[in-house]
Amino acid sequence: MTQASGHPLITDNDNAGRPMDLDHQVAEVISHITSAAYAQLSQRAGEIVERLVSEIEYFAADQPILDQLNAGATHNFSITMAILRRDVDIEQVGPSEPAIEIARLIAQRDIPITALEHAYRLYQESVVRWCLQELAVRSQNAAVTARAALEISTFVSAHVNLIAQQLLSTYESERDAWRLRRTASRSARISDVLAGRTVDVAPTEEILGYRFDQYHLGVILWTETTGNTEDELAHFEAAAMMFRDGLGLAGRPLFEARDAHMARAWIPLGDDNALDEGKLTALQGSWTGPVIVSVGNARNGIDGFARTHDEANSARLVVRASESSNFGVIRASELGAVTLLCSDMSAIRAWVSDILGPLAADNSATAQLRDTLRVFFRTGGSYAAAAEALHMHKNSVVYRIRKIEDQLGRPVREQRLDLENALQIAFWLGTAVLGDA
């Protein structure tokens, strides 16, 4: 019996009394299927590309990926048919150049590897389904059909698995290399902006994925603990997102890891520089964990991008100089001039000692006096207001201020500016600038 296509139809009668001819009949029907495929190569390859594009969203909107799909589809399909005909050994077949380029493009775009795996599973399913449809009209011999179907499924699957594994390695290598190149490029652009160098704004924004024409909140994130580098970096980025969420903001931060123990980020504020002080205060009070965050002030434009970072970094230097581990979130706006005084710690320690005298002693009783005087100044030199802020009786504040004046040997209103600055420095830097009792 012969089909309209000119290829013989294999029936049960063809195998009657000749069981040893089964292998030959299976090979023959597969040969007919592959011959049909070669005759329709462009059409079948185009159908496969159309299916990949319709079912994988990453491919549909990416013209370079589409170009490579079209360039490699016919070659890939013909190689699969050659493997089914036993003209080519599976182990000798590697990925085509378009397939390799697609793996690289996917890696460079940070498209998940699952998209590549999905593409090859769709390819496998499409090829096997078409072959089985051809088999159904070319064989009415149950034994031949079963063996041919198994052989088609096995060979196509083995071919796809081998290619997919090789491309997975290509993807991972390119992803790592691309991230290094991209990170280096991003870091170079950020460094140029922070250094005040002239930059081409539009390309820089495109590389960074971040807009300069808005308000920015610069933050520095770091930890004093040691741990796995990848875990630390992921922890920093998660902390940056948590900080943003705690402020009720929605823009994606620009994040840059500096090393295994420190990262910096800019949180976009859009056209509004007003932060919710209640949320910020609550965030400071609830912040836990090993990541410490220093925060600059909201600043606008490309110059503000650099300035808010510098403020956050100055706040970080204050925390580092303080030798204290009690900080979680520290704001540059709270530190005032203290951020300018950490470059020469020996000089600032001597100055604090000169100004505070006995009040520079590092003990709890003196710390209580320093805190009282600091609050007294902060509340405008009012005994009543200071008492309310300190949750104590007004007469107790009067007593402490007199005791402080006795130790200083002068009224607290003399050299008030120096006293206020020294108290602020002692508050933030603690033991780093205080001496023995």
Molecular structure report:
This protein is of the alpha+beta class and 437 residues long. It has 3 domains: 12-178, Orthogonal Bundle (Globin-like); 214-336, Alpha-Beta Plaits (2-Layer Sandwich); 344-432, Arc Repressor Mutant, subunit A (Orthogonal Bundle). The protein is 63% helix and 7% strand. The protein has 17 helices and 6 strands. It has helices at 22-39, 41-55, 57-60, 63-84, 97-108, 113-138, 142-194, 201-208, 229-246, 277-286, 301-322, 332-335, 345-356, 364-378, 383-390, 394-408, 416-429, and strands at 215-222, 254-259, 262-270, 292-295, 299-300, 329-331. Strands 1, 2, 3, 4, 5 and 6 form a 6-stranded mixed sheet that branches. Helix 1 (22-39) packs antiparallel against helix 4, helix 1 crosses helix 7 (142-194) and helix 5 packs across helix 7 (142-194). The protein starts with 21 loop residues before the first helix and ends in an 8-residue tail after the last helix. The relative contact order is 0.07. The model is unreliable at 1-5 (pLDDT under 50). InterPro entries: CdaR-like_regulators, CdaR_GGDEF, PucR_C-HTH_dom, PucR_C-HTH_sf, RsbRD_N_dom. This is DNA-binding PucR family transcriptional regulator. Residues 369-425 form the PucR C-terminal helix-turn-helix domain. It holds the Pfam family RsbRD_N.
